[in-house]
Amino acid sequence: MSLTKPPRARGGSAEPAAAGRRPPAARTALRAAGLAAALAVLLAVLALSIGVGAKQLSVTEVWHGLVDSDSDSDSWTVVHEMRLPRTLLGLLVGTALGLAGGVMQALTRNPLADPGLLGINAGASAAVVSAGTFLGIATFDGYVWFALAGTAAVAVLVYAVGGGRGATPARLALAGSALNATLFSYVSAVMLLDTGALEKMRFWTVGSLASAQSGTVLRVLPFIATGLLLALALARPLNAMALGDDSARALGARPELIRAAAIVAVTLLCGAATAACGPIVFVGLMVPHFVRALTGPDLRWLFPYCAVLAPVLLLGADVLGRVLGRPGELQVGIVTAVLGGPFFLWFARRGKVARA
Length: 356
Known about the structure:
The protein is an all-alpha fold. The chain is built from 15 helices and no strands.
């Protein structure tokens, strides 16, 4: 790198190139305005999720289904018992997956870090299917703990096999892919050998919001809320760790504690989300990359944006699956996989995987 000053352009200004950047106050205002716009988009998608489905309802019927107390009407049944719990669960799960992807990418410095690609969701799936098949556990209260345990075990295993502190993006991706394939093969084998498990969990294993109930939303809320608060609190320490462990310690951070807290946050977010609606891939990969183009690498802004825009993607995919599959529906996990596959190929095509 040359230490000499660049020549002054003829007729140009002597100010350095950095002077052309927006001042910090302007950048902050712009990011805040963008976050407000993202919240507006989220509200629009929430309304769309409640108003659109396999059964066509007019705007008036949807409104009456929301505000009327007549529980015997068809509109009340569709809105309150089906679409509203589904929308709220999609909001929570989307937030969880988007934040988990952002935390994992920041922790591992791996652009391919995603709960699906690194096998985290597969760990939760294997634990839930095992609990349901061999132990007869069939309620969320029972198998959520197995999902959390499976998530934590695979997260630690991928990080260890990938090289720990010296992990590279390529090694983490290889370790995660190998574990992902192994665990999903196990899940498939168990379900094919047990027709009862196949019937109960065939939609769950592809990722679905169709079986959402108000009780599920209330049970998953504490886990995701705790993971959300922990992830947001880690934004500043993870920013410091991006400079390296030594620099982070010089800034007062404790890398070992930060890594442990990040794994706990990912475990709570991914484990609860997967237990509630099954493994949904690519949300945690796509959203942080899109957000990073808007906010830059500062995690204090990236994490809130991910928490808002990830449910936009998930609920939008769910609505799309309901519309395209009428009179039935396409499960949201299938739609996100179809959308995420081309994105992954485009990202790999750019060559950033090798240079990360």
